[in-house]
C-alpha cells in the first residue's frame, strides 16, 4: 500500500507551548515585506513603523490560498497593515489558534456547527468552491464519470481506464484523508459512507501535493479545488460527473453538487485592523477577485 503523508505540527505545538512558556511566535510568511530597522540605532526607527498593524492568519491547506490572495490585495491598499501567515493546518488547530489569541483570522472549508463555535467567535462564508474530479492529461477519451464509475475506481474494482473508454493503462487513484473536506464531499455525493477505499490508493495530506502528483503521475485521478484548477491553470482534464460539468455557472445554479464553503472565522470583537479587512471582503474589488480566482462569491452581508 502506497501512502504519503505530510503536514505541519507548528500551529498545534504553538498552541500547546507558546502561552505557558511565554514564547513569542515568529510568523513564517508575510503578504508584505517587514519594515526595516537598525538594531544599533533605535532613534532612527521611523514613526510609521511603530504604527504598522499586524494581522495573524492561517487556514486549511485547501483554503489558505484564497485568504492569502485577499489579504495581499488588502495590504496593497492599506499599506500600514501587514499580514503574517502561520503554516496551513487542520480546522481544529486553526480554531484553537484563534481562541488562544495566536491567530486573528482563519480560513476553513466547512461551516461551523453551533457546538463547534464559542460565544466569542464569529464566522462568515465568503465564497463557494467546487471540487473537480480530474485526471492526468495521459487519460484520453474519458470526459464523464457516473456515480457507479467513481465507486468502481475508488474501491479498486475498476483497474484499467479502458473500462471507461480510455487508454489501456492501470488507474492510479490519488486520494485525500477521510477527515479532509475533499474526501468527505466525495463520499457524501458519490462514494457513500460505506465504500472501502482501494488499498492501492495514494493518500496525500495536502491539496498542493495531490495537485503536483496529479500532474506528474500518468493515468492518475484525483479530486481538488476547482478554483485552484482555474486560477493556477493546472494542466489536467476536468471530468463531468453524471453529465454535469464543473463550472462556476453550474455551481451557482446548484446543478453541480460537490461544493464546499470558504469560511472565515475570527473573534466577534476583532482588532480594528482585522475588522477593516473583514469589511473589505464585501467590496466590489474583493468580490471581483474571488470570481477571477475561480470561486463563486457568497452574499457577505454581516
Automatic annotation (TrEMBL):
This is Substrate-binding domain-containing protein. PANTHER family: PERIPLASMIC PHOSPHATE BINDING COMPONENT OF PHOSPHATE ABC TRANSPORTER, PHOSPHATE-BINDING PROTEIN PSTS. It comes from the Bacteria. Keywords: Signal. It comes from Planktothricoides raciborskii FACHB-1370. Coiled coil: none annotated. InterPro entries: PBP_domain (IPR024370), Phosphate_ABC_transporter (IPR050811). Signal peptide: none annotated. Residues 49-285 form the PBP domain. Pfam families: PBP_like_2. SUPFAM superfamilies: Periplasmic binding protein-like II (SSF53850).
